[in-house]
Amino acid sequence: HRERQRFVDKNGRCNVQHGNLGGESSRYLSDLFTTLVDLKWRWNLLIFLLTYTVAWLVMASMWWGIAYLRGDLHRPHDDAYSPCVANVYNFPSAFLFFIETEATIGYGHRYITERCPEGIVLFLFQSLLGSIVDAFLIGCMFIKMSQPKKRAETLMFSRAAVISQRDGKLCLMFRVGNLRNSHMVSAQIRCKLIKSRQTPEGEFLPLDQCELDVGFGTGADQLFLVSPLTICHEINSKSPFFCLSQRSLRSEQFEIVVILEGIVETTGMTCQARTSYTEDEVLWGHRFLPVMSLEDGFFRVDYSQFHATFEVPTPPYSVKE
Asked: Residues in domain Inward rectifier potassium channel C-terminal (predicted)?
């Protein structure tokens, strides 16, 4: 078993990092909403807490500043004096008034008087700013929580791919399954072969991508994924594995990236699950064990045999040979 760097991990994470962006990093700020959604949860929560904390302190300081400039803080218990905000004596009381206004609690003890135009203007500004901040941050958290990434964790791929004969043709096969009872609507599967190659002109392509046909012309790539399915790629003269034999498989170095896309039935959002198979995870002369059985009135899927394979007689030669 040869451990090497993968382009796509088994769990679907792409091992690609972008560096030396230079001035192009400003593009992330131009799409700030998507940038916040893409951040990890710990950074999202930190930004959420810091934004609200800073906004609360700044707005409370503005209310305290109005009371200080008008002299309301020096006449806290003068019944003949009409302050800007009743019962605001210091910064904590100004902060409580802001929280009551922002959260629309309205205890009634603190309120704006009609003789304070600057307070009315600040109240309008606070209402508009609070609505914008709430819509932006709460919308960001909602989108992040409703992302269908977790749905991809209940979509299974077999740990290994196999090469054996099916209907008299040599085929590369792997298995996919759905652990939930809810369906993946319009599920479609695609495969990419990632392999280094050199062109006739001498150009070296380190991660060249080539499409593997898994039934695009026949519609077999459109899946009805209610039970585990075996995806088949026929190795023929148009396949990049046309010259692959059992012996050459030991010296090859490639990676097969599998992409399963569909619409989550319960939410209507598009979900994508990915995995990959390196040359060490392709078993020559194997076939998957059956996992379906008919019982009283229904079909049962035995997922304990989902990854299991067994050997079958398979010619060790390539299709070309």
From this structure: 155-320
Rounded to whole angstroms, the Cα distance separating 170 from 320 reads 11
Question: How far is Cα 83 from Cα 39, in angstroms, rounded to an integer?
Answer: 45
Residue 271 near residue 189, CB atoms below 8 Å: no
Domain range for residue 241? 150-311
Q: Any idea what the CATH number is for the domain that residue 75 is in?
A: 1.10.287.70
Cα dihedral 254, 256, 257, 260, rounded to 10, equals 180
Taking the C-alpha atoms of residue 190 and residue 261, their distance in angstroms, rounded to an integer, is: 8
Does residue 291 belong to any structural domain of this protein?
yes
DSSP state string for 177-192: EE-SSS-EEEEEEEEE
pLDDT at 232: 94
190 CB neighbour count, 10 Å cutoff? 15
Q: How many domains does the chain have?
A: 2
Instruction: Please give the angle made by the CA atoms of 252, 258 and 259, to the nearest 5 degrees.
Output: 155
216-235 pLDDT, tens digit per residue, is 888 888 999 888 999 999 99
186 in the same domain as 92:
no
Span 17-64, pLDDT tens digits: 877 777 777 777 777 888 888 888 899 899 999 999 999 999 999 989
Q: Which CATH number characterizes residue 281's domain?
A: 2.60.40.1400
If one counts every other C-beta atom within 10 angstroms of the C-beta of residue 212, the result is 20
| Among candidate residues 123, 146, 169, the one where a domain is terminated | 146
**Domain-located, residue 67:** yes
